[in-house]
Every structure is written in structure tokens, then in C-alpha cells.
Amino acid sequence: MAMHNPPHPGGIERRQSLEPLCLPVTQDEIHLGVARQSLSKLVNERSGVSVDMAIRLSRAFGLSPATWLGMQMADDLFQARSRIDEIRVERIQAT
């Protein structure tokens, strides 16, 4: 069963890592080895988790890369389902 409005992985990082540890994005970018703008977009939920970022987040915060990517996929699928009526596809049938 699909989760209703699953959390964005960037928001999870912000709420469970940056805020409790009082880390500014600039400090976290140093730990992750990414540009501040990239990290800012992620934690502000304006971009998604790439495979590379999933590995970085895994190494920094301990969840597996598959977990980070699974959260991203759940969010992507939820967003796509909210636009399902806009997606026009013709069914392909074997002849």
C-alpha cells in the first residue's frame, strides 16, 4: 500500500540531522563534499537524492544508500500519482 504523502528525504535530513546537531548547511556541505547550493536545494525539498548523494548521506548519517533512494522513489511516485490524469499514454497490446 502506498504511503500518503511520504516525507521528502531532504526534509528528513534537515529535521533529523542538521537541526538536532545545530549544523548549518555550510558545515554539512563540508562533511558531505558537495556544493552548498546542491545541499540547500535538497534540504529545502527543491531537488531529489541522486545515487551519489545517497552514498554520501549514507556515509555521513548511517542509513543505507538504498534507504535514501527508496525514500526518494516513494516521494517521486507520490508526486507523479498526483499528476496521473495529465499523463497521456496509449495502451500497447500484442497482436
Number of helices: 5
Q: Strand tally, please?
A: 0
Report the portion of residues in β strands. under 5%
Average pLDDT rating: 87
The secondary-structure element order is HHHHH
First and last CA, distance: 33 Å
Low-confidence stretches: none
- Using the alpha-carbon principal axes, give the shape: elongated
* Helical amount: 55-70%
Biggest sheet features: none
Give Rg in angstroms: 16 Å
Task: Please provide a written account of the structure.
With 95 residues, this protein is mainly alpha-helical. It has helices at 9-18, 25-32, 36-43, 51-61, 65-81. Helix 1 crosses helix 3 (36-43) and helix 4 packs across helix 5 (65-81). The mean pLDDT is 87.
Q: Could you outline the blueprint of secondary structure elements for this entry?
A:
Elements: H1 9-18, H2 25-32, H3 36-43, H4 51-61, H5 65-81
